[in-house]
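Quick one - first record:
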Amino acid sequence: MLEKNKVSVVITTYKRNSSLLRAIDSVIKQSYKNFEIIVVNDCADDKLILLELLKDYDLKLIHSNSGDANSARKIGFLNSTGEFICFLDDDDYWGVDKLLFQVDLLKNNPSVILVTSNGIEFHEEKDEKSVIITSSNKNLLFYGNFIGGFSFVCLRSSFIKPNFFWLGLESGQDWFFWLKLYFSYPNMVFEHCKSYDVFYQKSVVNISNDPVKKVNGFFKVYKYIYPNLKINHIKYFNFIKPSNYGFTKCSFLSFVSSGILFKPFYSYIFYIIKLKILRLK
C-alpha cells in the first residue's frame, strides 16, 4: 500500500561519494518534508565505505552490482512506499522547493501523472552554467526528450511499470521511460513547473556526453517508436557544426560529439534533421 502524499526519492549512485552527499543534503533541505530517501549503490566495492559514510542519515541503503543505472532505479522503485516518486542522479541536486511545487501540482490535479521542472546545467570543471528549459508537451516526445532527465520529474508511483526501465540501454533511458508512460496512459496529463529547481551536472565523464553511447541510444529509442525506420538512411544527410570560420560539414558522430546539442538554436536544427530522417520510409 502506497503512503498518501509521501514522496519516495530514489538516488542512484556509482563511485561518487562526495557528490552523493550533496544530492542527499539537497533532499533533506526540501521545504516539503513528507519523503523517504532510498539510495541504491550500484558498486559493490563501495559497500563498506557507504555504510560508514551514511550511518548518520535517515535513509534506506540498498546495494546492487548491476553496473546499469536503470537497473538501480528499478530496484529503488520496487522498494519505494510513497504515492509519488522522484529519481535523483548522484551528481545532480535540487533547490529547496522542488518537491513542494511539483507535489502541489500532482495533489491538485488528479489527471496529472508527471510534473517536470526547468533547471540549471553546471560544469564544475569549466565553471560554466546554462539554463535548461523543459516542456510537458507530450507530442514533442516523438522528436526527442524535451521533458528532461530523471532528476527533473516527479511522478505518481501507481502508474509506473517495471518494464518502463530499459535495462542495458546506453543512453536515452529517461526518454524511453517518458515514452512508455505516454503510450501506456495516452489520456493522462504531463505538467510543467516553471521554477528552476534542478541543478544538472554536465561532466566530461557523463554517459550523456559519450558520442558513441549517445548515438546508439538515440537510434534504439527511435527504432522503438518507429519499428520500420531504416537506420542506414542517416548516411545520406550532411550535418553542420560551428567552426572558427562559420560552419563546416561533418559526420553524424562528429556532430553529436561537438556538444552543440546543449545549445538551444543548434538543438532546434538537430531535431529538424531528425524529423527528415524519420520521413524516409
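second record:
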Amino acid sequence: MGLEFETVLKQSDESLTNKVISFGRKIVPQRYRAIVKDFLFGAPKIPFERPYRFVGGVEALFYIKNTSDFDRIVSARVEAEYRSRMEEVFIKEKGRTFLDIGCAQGLYSVLAAKHGLFVDAFDPDPISIVSLGANIKLNQVGERIKINPVALSDCEGKTPFFIDRGGSFAPSMIQTVGGLQEKIEVNTTTVDNLIRRKNLPSPAVIKIDVEGAEGRVINGMKNLLSSSDKPKNMFVELHQDYLPIFNEDMNSVYETVVGFGYRVAWSARCPSGLLCHFVAN
C-alpha cells in the first residue's frame, strides 16, 4: 500500500517547477530558505493593515498577522486544491460536525461554519487560539465554533509543546525547527475519550494538521474509525521532514488510514516538497 501512495505522489513531482524547487531544497539549508524565498519572490508586508477578504466557496475575512497567516490564507501555492476539495465536502455535510485538529488561525473552521457546519476546533498553541478567536468574531460565527485549547494525541495527560510567539514557525509537540524557542506544557486527550464522555459528537469530516504528530492523533481515534459512525471524509496534511522525529513516515500514516477501510481519493505534494496532503473517504 505504501508504494501505491508514493507512486501517486510522484505524479505531482514531475513538473519542471517542482523539480527546480526540489533541487533548491537540496542545496539551501532549511534555516535560509525563507530568506531566499523572500529575495526571489519579494517579502509580503506583514501584518496587513486591514482584514484580508478570502473568496472561495464562501466569502470570509481574516487577519493576516504573520507569515503563517499569509502562507495559509493568502498564498494559493500551498494548498489551494486541498482547500477547494474540503469546501466541496462542507457543502454536502451542512449541519454536521467538522473536527478541525490543529486549527491554527481558523481558516478551515471559519469556512466550515460559513458553509453551515458545527465546528470543534482544537489547538493548544496560545497564539493560534487568540488568532482563531479574533477571526471567529470578525466573521460572526461564534455560535457554530467551539474552541478547545487542548492537544489531541494518543493518550491523556500533559506534554511539552514548542511555540514561536512571532508566528513564523508552526508549533509542535517536539522542537521540529530552531525557531520554536519557547517551551510550554499543554494538556492532551484523545478523540475517542472525548466521544466516550460525550464531550464531542461523532464528526462527519476531520482535518488533521499537527506538524508530524498525525500518527499519534489517528491512534487516539481508533474506536471512532472502527465504528459504523466513522467520519465520511478525512483531510490530512503530512510533513515529510517532521514525521521521522515522531517515528513515523508518510507511508505508515497512509497505511493506518487505509487499514480502517478508507481509500485515498486525492493526494498531492506541495511545490516546496515539504508537505503532502491527502483526502480519504
